[in-house]
Amino acid sequence: MSLDAIKILTPELIVILTATLIYVLGAFLPGRHWGRVAMLGLIGAAIALYCTYEYRFWPEGAQAPLASVEIKGPIAVDLFGQYIRWLALLVGSLFVLTAQRPSSSTPAAEMVGTLLMSVAGTMLVGSARELGLLFLGLELVSIPTYVVLYLARGDRASQESTVKYFFLSILSSGVLLYGFTFLYGLTGTTDLVEIRQILLAGDDTLGAGRLFGRLALVLIFAGLGFRITAVPFHFYAPDVFQGTSNLNAGLLSVLPKIVGFTALVRLIAIAMPGYEVLAWRVAIVLAVLTMTLGNVLALWQDNVRRMLAYSSIAHAGYMLIGLAVGLAANMEDVSSVALFQGIGSTIFYLVVYGVSTAGVFAALTALGEPDKQVDLLDDLAGAGKTHPFVAGCIAVFMFSLAGLPPLAGFWGKLSLFFSALGVDAPTGGDTSDLRKWFLALAIVAALNAAIAAAYYLRIVGVMYFRSPLTTLAGEGGRGARVALTASVVLVVLMGLAPGRLQSGANKAAQSLLPAPATPQVAKLP
Predict the structure, then answer these.
(1) What predicted TM-score, i.e. pTM, was given to this entire model?
(2) Most exposed: 4, 32, 175, 337, by fewest CB within 10 Å?
């Protein structure tokens, strides 16, 4: 790895060093000191964010910190990686604030430090252009997640959810690695740019090797499907969400989806040309099954976290729409505008969903106590009267997740739906089949959005139209209140002025395609 590559990784290194410092200080600080530890974590995230903008941390030749620059090593310097880095730091800061508690049996240093490690892993996945580094980043998210799940609560339900997630996560990692071996065996390299060039050049020479590419595609979808909670790899989510804390449920809702979709975009949409026909069909089927099952099953839930787990599954289905559009548009002679719009819409939706979801779980944390969670929907009854500010924020988040205008979620869904309607067929090809697939997908997505509105509005109705059954303590800490306040402000601002964020997402998608290179001879096993 070159010195330029190490300089590019400065933000990730700062976050990791901050987490390490927090671990060490936790051994010497008496008591819990949640406030100090959380503040140290926020300082580290802020410094890392500054370094992503600072010119001197970028390689020589970059005209701006967001320019696409090719350097030797496993690091991708592009707008897409930057976008994911900023998103990881943003939602990571919100979760660090939420983790700040007045008193708790959970060790503060271990909780915040491990959370920062997950943020660093998310940032690393965003910048990886090599299979080994990509897998390292994915595991740097998964392994700390096991720890925070175990630290959250000491009861049997929490331990059961941790064990379920642990074993299923290991299985998904094994499946993903198996897919990587087929991809490596087909191309003879682990560099994503080289893999793309070899597959482009080997169109006529790969022959039977195409079978290995298809196996790699299916296994990668399966391995990453666990992280994004796509059907049929979703089944762990409701039980794990119900058994853990509100903070950890929020963490599981957001960070794994960011890394999962980031990896899917880099691996399948960009690095595997020639397999788009199979890939977009798989993505469409997964999108329809995921959003429909998630929304329908959410209607019957009385546990808040279990309901939001199915909601999280449904949102993965929406994001798969953008991925399917990008894959279909990446076929030969299809306009690249659709590719940018599809991938860009997915990135934009990740931001909208991530901020809204982090805000929801920060609000639930604020309504509870350090060692007692808001579990049931009945617990929220009358919250509009007893805790009007927090209840109002939850209502805004529910409206945004439901896709009601003028909030951010409306523009996120609209962007995905229009990207599906805008898919065109290859020049000179038959437009009917392709258009029918994506028209049907847009119709199913619209129907699912209507179904989802029922259970989101149900939460709002319980808070404002039912009498309190229990007294909510509202002692989740000032950090959770700050996090939910910041989240609701961002959701409203993104709803009122979505253009700049959407434009940035489209530019990030455009930066993914490398400059044309001299074709290489395909390397066959």
Answers:
(1) 0.90
(2) 337
